[in-house]
Specification:
38% helix; Aspartate Aminotransferase, domain 1; 12 helices; Aspartate Aminotransferase, domain 2; seven-stranded mixed sheet; 2 domains; alpha/beta; three-stranded antiparallel sheet; single chain
């Protein structure tokens, strides 16, 4: 059967591929340590699970409104008003099958063929295929490890043209762990505000995982709270990272544009795709939002300790260079000093992909190669520290030994 050109040209997720390979090796009896998946190792809080059981028992098994129940949309709007400072109503909220689905829908609603979307790179690897599937062109606003993977207003402005439909900002960021300060985010937002039509898409899925203890300037500030850009900002968020609910697939977008244009368009699109999330998950999402002020800080404290541990251990490997992560649960070391060398097993290390493959096969450690995160990531690997301290210590010790053996 013929497969469409747009799908044939679509690359699969490198993160999911690494995770699948690591699972396959474990199933074959290998002691693989996985630093691939961006998935918290906590369990979903028990009251959230109980809310699902109660909803099922109460018969919440029928169709529900596509953008979410009125109660859930209001709970999300209340959270965004009180916690993020965004002036919004329930009608501005569209609940989706994870924040990834929300990002896909936003791009589909904002981008026409020929439009440009500025993405600050290194960036989450799914932004590019989302934009290209909409017929848009990705314009990379590249950063470097010397900048701690953060851009400036001047660099952002230089990337924008009359064809710019949107700018995507992700702070704290995947894959780098870079986190902007409030002043930095305001300055970037003002660049977008000065453009006549560009929309700022603020991906804040990691907003609960910010570490001012590591960098006092790091902030969980929401650009959508700025009056100058309030009606041209779409904020993406969800429960996957902050409440250990990755498998639940509950995310949302908030777009208070005054007339509900974006929310209505996303609802219309979603009605032809997935409809809404399962009806019985909506009460659980409300319960998760109620518990978030207690549960998310508890998890953040653990990730803060892991960020410090990973920084200490990776900084002790001479051939790796690291910008310390100040948010999320990723480290993004530069492996330039390893390129051109050979592994103990005789493999040539000529790229991050080659590094990651050899490391997995020879040292039983899974990391994500940097190539798919953008041109600015072609000498990096991503290490997710969404796992226990013992796994972190053992895995990085293996990396250190293996890297030291390269010749």
């Amino acid at each position: 059967m013929k497969i469409s050109n747009r799908v044939q040209s679509l690359r699969g997720s490198a993160t999911l591929a690494v995770t699948a390979r690591a699972k396959a090796l474990r199933a074959a009896g290998r002691d693989v340590i996985g630093f691939g998946a961006g998935e918290p190792d906590f369990d979903t809080p028990e009251p959230v699970k109980q809310a699902v059981a109660d909803a099922l028992r109460d018969g919440a098994t029928k169709y529900a409104p596509t953008p979410g129940s009125p109660e859930l949309r209001e709970a999300v709007a209340a959270r965004m008003r009180e916690h993020n400072g965004i002036h919004c109503e329930a009608s501005d909220v569209v609940v989706s099958v994870g924040a990834k689905h929300a990002a896909f829908e936003v791009v589909q609603c904002l981008v026409d063929p020929g439009d440009e979307v500025v993405v600050i790179t290194p960036a989450w690897l799914s932004y590019r295929p989302m934009i290209e599937l909409a017929g848009g062109t990705v314009v990379e606003c590249g950063t470097s490890i010397a900048d701690c993977f953060k851009t400036t207003p001047e660099r952002l402005a230089a990337c924008m043209t009359p064809r710019t439909a949107a700018v995507i900002v992700n702070s704290p960021g995947n894959p780098t762990g870079a986190t902007y300060g409030r002043d930095e985010l305001e300055a970037l937002a003002m660049v977008v505000a000065a453009h006549p039509t560009a929309v700022l898409v603020s991906d804040e899925i990691y907003e609960e995982l910010v570490y001012p203890e590591i960098d006092p300037t790091a902030s969980a500030f929401s650009p959508g709270s700025l009056p100058a850009l309030a009606d041209r900002t779409v904020t993406l968020n969800g429960l996957s990272k902050s409440m250990a609910m990755t498998g639940w697939r509950i995310g949302w977008s908030v777009a208070p544009d005054g007339e509900g244009v974006v929310a209505k368009a996303m609802t219309r699109l979603q009605s032809q795709m997935t409809s809404g999330i399962p009806t019985f998950l909506m009460p659980a999402a409300i319960e998760a939002l109620r518990l978030q002020p207690v549960e998310s800080p508890r998890m953040r404290e653990v990730f803060l300790g892991r960020a410090r541990l990973v920084t200490e251990l990776l900084s002790g490997i001479p051939r790796l260079e690291l910008a310390r992560p100040t948010g999320a649960f990723y480290a993004f070391p530069d492996i330039s000093a390893c390129l051109g060398l050979r592994s103990p097993g005789g493999r040539s290390i000529d790229s991050p992909a080659g590094f990651a493959e050899a490391l997995l096969e020879e040292a039983d450690v899974a990391v994500v190669p940097g190539e798919d995160f953008g041109e600015a990531a072609r000498t990096n690997i991503r290490i997710s520290f969404a796992c226990g301290d013992e796994q972190i210590r053992t895995g990085i010790a293996r990396i250190a030994t293996w890297v030291d053996s390269l010749s």
